[in-house]
Amino acid sequence: MRVIVTGGAGFIGSALVRYLVGTRGWDVTNVDKLTYAANLASLDSVSGNSGYRFVKADICDAAAMDKVFSEAKPEAVMHLAAESHVDRSITGAAEFISTNILGTFTLLEAARRYWNSLDENPKAAFRFLHVSTDEVYGSLPPDGYFLETTPYDPRSPYSASKASSDHLVSAWRETYGLPTLITNCSNNYGPNHFPEKLIPLVILNALEGKPLPVYGDGRQVRDWLYVDDHVKALALAVERGRVGETYNVGGRAPMENIAVVQTICDALDVLRPGKSPRRSLITYVADRPGHDRRYAIDPTKIETELGWTRGETFATGIAKTVQWYLDNEAWWQPLRSKVYSGTRLGLLPEGAK
Known about the structure:
353 residues; 12 helices; globular; alpha/beta
């Protein structure tokens, strides 16, 4: 299959490209504007493959997108390009509105122009997969799970921008007939994760003996999904998913944040013993503004309809993830020293709220 992947130099995007090119043998055009969180080193294993092509471009650039479609002649688009860090959205929402909303609009229009130019059979086979987040659903009570029918209730600039892009994708299907699908995933983790998110931040801070910041009381619940399991779900959605449907992708692994941090500490104490237990580095800090309390996904629909199942439990996935960071300092050290050192993000100035 020939596909365009947007955001293919990011965390999930690079895992997807590696899987599609290296395992599935698909032809992939990777479109990425290379923001701070993108890293072409994550694609070294496929960069020389004849089925892989990289285009540096912004999805907000309509002319560039038209050119990509014209040259790639895709059978599908897998749209992952997005600003994704909630903390950064709190103090810098403009980038999220631009990329996540205006960028998705621009890409949809480019896809529609290309799709309308196709002959009958390739037009019928074309798919536009929009990859979104469970954060669009808001915060769950102490029990229950997100379903595909859960009403949207975004609480942060990030989740609001993703909810907006989801609605655009649905509207382009209803209004113009563009054959779109949406996936909403839970929190991803695994190798090549930019170290601003909880799991890689805790691993690297713990290795360096720095404080391990835990927001509020640490009892917020997130549902953890190993990234390699997620990208297999995305491929299935393109291959087998029904147009107009949403599929929730979750790892069936809801855990409190404090338990995640403690698990990482204990794993590092075994694999790379320090002078004292890493749990002693845990530091409770002021909570994130508008912090959702609980997320948990019911992935029954994608399991039963498309035959997807997770391959990793949280225990097996986190063990692989910790070991990967221990083995790949050459990948993350330049990021820590030149791009992001691990300082706290997303704090409002005093009196701003």
